[in-house]
Structures are given as structure tokens and as C-alpha cells.
Write a structure and sequence with these properties.
Length: 488
Amino acid sequence: MSKDDVLSAAARRNMFLSPDALEIIMSNSDPEAFAQTVLSSLANNPIFVTKEDVIQFLEGDKSIIPPVKTFDPQNKRDLEIKVMEGTDISGNSTCVGDIDDFLRYFQNRFAVLKRILERRSDFGRAKQIKECRTKYDIECKIIGIVNEKRITSNGHIILNIEDDGGGRDSNCTVFISKDNEFYNEIIVSDMVLGFKGVFSKPKQGESKGMFIAREVFKPGVPPKAWKPSDSHSVLAFLSDVHIGSYTFLEKNWQKMIKYLKDNSESMNINYIVLPGDVVDGIGIFPGQEEELNIKDIYDQYKTLAEYLKDVPDHIQMVIHPGNHDACRPAEPQPSLNKAFTQNFDSNVMMTANPVYLNIEGRVVLTYHGRSIDDWVAGVQQLTYDDPLQVMVEMVNARHLAPIYGQKTALAPEKKDYMAMGIVPDIFVSGHVHGYGYKEYRGVRLINASTWQNQTEYQKQHNFNPVPGIMPLVHLGTGAVTMKNFMKD
Ligand SMILES: [Fe+2]
Ligand SMILES: [Fe+2]
């Protein structure tokens, strides 16, 4: 990779490298992978990346490995991954998908996100639309779910929103001027937003006035710092393994296994989460059978179970489905059926997608990431090259998959499992076969690579994976590093 390639990779992330930072990157044996890792891992997401930033990153990389003397195997036996109560749909699915189910589902989404919005100190309690729609020109606060967004011929935003007031008066039109400071906020359909502003008087011939928004509020998360704990454990991620695909990276996987065998005890790598697409599945896209070397879905899971037997026994693992797995496509997806999981050892736990885990006191939200497709398709500023920015928007919206009716099928369960009711310490996704790390308001966002190389289908669709990388998070210090197994 030339200097120009590194500089353009940085520019794509809106970053600029100082000459000495560039020099350090170019001195690495694999400048391309190193540049990608450094740029995606800088915690404060700077515009200008200095030599000091790169050096700090390298020091952080070292700090992921705690001193060996703290290793205490006796202690570890008491430490188990816990699924956080009420966050796993497995065994709790009740929906049949009728109108009542959908009504209740969206009411729950609204209620959860309204509660979060009203806890914002800069927003507070809102009124129902029907309470304030005739109090013209008096500032009020309302909350609504976005039914529709359009842009006027003059470039202003018009939203149609609805709240929980019931009846005809529970919806209204919200106007956001193109000069409003919130104009560029990313707004997608079916997200829940708060607004401060005023209702205008109805124009002649119209029955309702318009809400003129002065400020727009997303549920969001308050800024939080990572509080170091005395945990010595490291949590690793292996996303999108795609067993059964003819481009599964066997050689690099074996390198990773050897690394775990050699280092996991001394480094205290005690947990691994596999966030979906653990197998390639069958019939996922047209002509997929041409790209499979294991064509039987049971054999794919059986093979994965065999591969995972090589992982040192002290490591607890969690597997949840993704869109390639043998599971209902509608999210939340329950854990894999026993028919597929009987060959796995007892250190492998099966959960739903998404799910919240408590690992040594850290809250880990793991979601495969199917909805990234819909975020990218619906929002011009979001791209597959930067899945972390999509994850930032999920955190702001406090919802993993707000957009209804696109690629991500949503199951209308009694409660909205896709809403982020709890603020996680670590939020991981996969699906896009990219990778990266970013800290956002104290939440460590990780996109966790893949173990499948580019397939013919992906080539035709201009999909360029970044495979063979295992993200590692130290649960005590919060240090994050990316271990790349693509290098020789
Ligand atoms: Fe995948
Ligand atoms: Fe996927």
C-alpha cells in the first residue's frame, strides 16, 4: 500500500494524518491493515491524527495484555456469562403477526423511548399532541414516532409524527426549517423523537396547524466514562464465521486457535462472543449452493461445533444467530434450535439475537447487525465502509432497527427487544464483514470482522470484506485491540 492509499483511507474516515504519523504507519510490515486498525481504534475520533495518537494507540495495544501474575484459575470458575433478564426472546415469543400484535409492539416501542427521552435533563416531560395543538405560539414539548419524512420543494423537512394520545388528534405535521441547526440530524422512519417548538394556527381551509420545531431531541445516551474494575479478563469476538462457505478462512482460523492455545491463559481471554452468521446457511441468496463446500445445514453446525472444541476449555462462548443462520429471519431471533446445537460442548451458550449479557459486571449488547442494510439504504450519510457510524446512530436512536418494512423483518413481540432500554458498556455487531472500534459517549462500539473471504457473489456486488480479525476488550481497563490473523 502506498502513502497515497493510506492518506485516502484516512480521508474516507474524515481524518488527516500528520507526516510523522504517516511515517510510523508506513514503517509497519502491513501498512494497510495497520492504518485501518489505528484509524478505527482512535478513541476520540480526531480529525487530525498525530504521531502521539499513533503511539498512544500502540501503548493501548500493549495494555490489553495484563501481567501474568494476576492469573487465578480458581477464581475464574465462579465467573459466568449471564444473560440479562428480559432481553432474550428465546422461549418467550408470542406474536402471530396480526394487526393487534403490531399495534402493541409499536406502543411498547413508543413507551420505552418516550421514557428515555423524558429522562433527558435538557428535555423533561412532554405533552401529548392533542393537549397543545390549539395553544398556538406557546412553546411546548411533544414526542412522536416518525410515520413519514419528506423534503419540500424549498428544501425544508416535513415529518408526520404520531404519539400515544389515541384518535385523530394524536398525529401532526412537524416542520424543520432548512436553516434549523437540527436540520442535518439523521432521521429515519419509525424512530421516536422529541421536539420543542410551537404549533402554528391552521391555514385557511385546513383543520390543523403545523408544529414548527425549534429543537429536535433523540433519546441518546448521557456521556459516561469507563470505570476501571479489578477484572483481569479479556472478552473476544469472532463474528460471521460462515462455516460451510467455500471461502471460509481455514488457515487463518487455525492461526487464531493456536494463538488462543498459546496465549489465552496468560492473557486471561476468558470469553468469546460469536455475533451471528456462524454458518453460511443454505438458500440465503440465489446460487448460494455454488459457493458452499458443506451443503447440509446440520453438517455446517456440526463442523462449527468441532472447530470450537479446539478453543481452550476455560473459555466460555456465546453464539447467537444472524441472517445466515437456521432461524426465523424476523428479529429478535430466538436462539438456535437444539437440532442444530446438540454437538456443541457445554462451554458454548446459545442466546437470542440481539441480547444483553453481563460479563464480570460489564453490560455487553450483541446484535448481528442486519438492520445496517436498512440504515445504509435509507440515509445518504451512512455507508458500509463505516458501520461504526451506523452503530452511533443506533445508540442515538436507542434502537437497533427502527425502520419497519425494509430488509430487516421485525417480529411484533409484546415488547420491543430491538429498543436499547439499557445503555451497554460494549456494543458489538457484525454482518457487514468490516471491522473497527470506536468509543461513543462511553460505549465501546465494535464491528467484529468475519472469517469468510470474499466470495464470487460478494465480488459481483462490490462487497469487500476485511476478514480474519479478532477484537479483544479488557474488561478491567476497557482497552480494546484488534488481533489480525491475516498477516503471515
Ligand atoms: Fe455475514
Ligand atoms: Fe449477516
